[in-house]
Amino acid sequence: MFSDYLLLGAIGFVAQLIDGALGMAFGVISTSAMLTMGIPVAQASAIVHTAEIFTTAASATSHVYHRNVDWGLVARLGIGGVLGAVIGAWVLSNVDSAAARPYVSAYLLALGIFILFKAARRLPKRDAPFKLAPPLGLVGGFLDASGGGGWGPMVASTLVGSGHAPRRAVGSVNTTEFFVTVAAATTFFIELGIAPWQNLIALIVGGVIAAPFGGWAVKHLPARVLMVLVGVLVVTLALWQLARTFKLV
Asked: Is-contact 48 243, C-beta < 8 A?
């Protein structure tokens, strides 16, 4: 129905607006919405990742324009992220990986609380070195592709929690996500074929319209505000996923 496409377009707009500003949530929000519409999880993840090729390209362009990107961090995250995305997409296409979700949600909940605690105490003065970027990218890429979302919550949250300035963390994570998404979408295409174009176009249009605003927002919002917003969003998403896992909602 046409109303479904309008709804998906609105979902894509809101999800990308949040994702561009906070470095997370497009995959989680979009996938969750499509699951409630009755779309199978593997197909929903394939649609989301194919749409994200376009939305992450637009978002990355905005972050590059506003100078929010640490290219060294992008390179280190991308190495593991692309590999993890390929493995995760293959797993979701062939194996049920739902058993790991409660543990991931619990990790994200603890991480979100930690970020809020750090925001209340002090702010990072400069980007802290993070030597584990490649394995973090590997885990984030795998969770993103196999769970229909998770790159931003896992990677951006960990970077902010480790001391990276929120602006650089969000901008770099969003830029790296383009390469991770291309890897996941290509694997889904090989395993499942082309995604339904009607749903795909609706998500792309909504997401691309919203993408330019994210780079502006992350450049102009104070670091403490960004840390609090990231923490609150991570805690909310984690609690929601745990509630769904244990059938409380």
From this structure: no
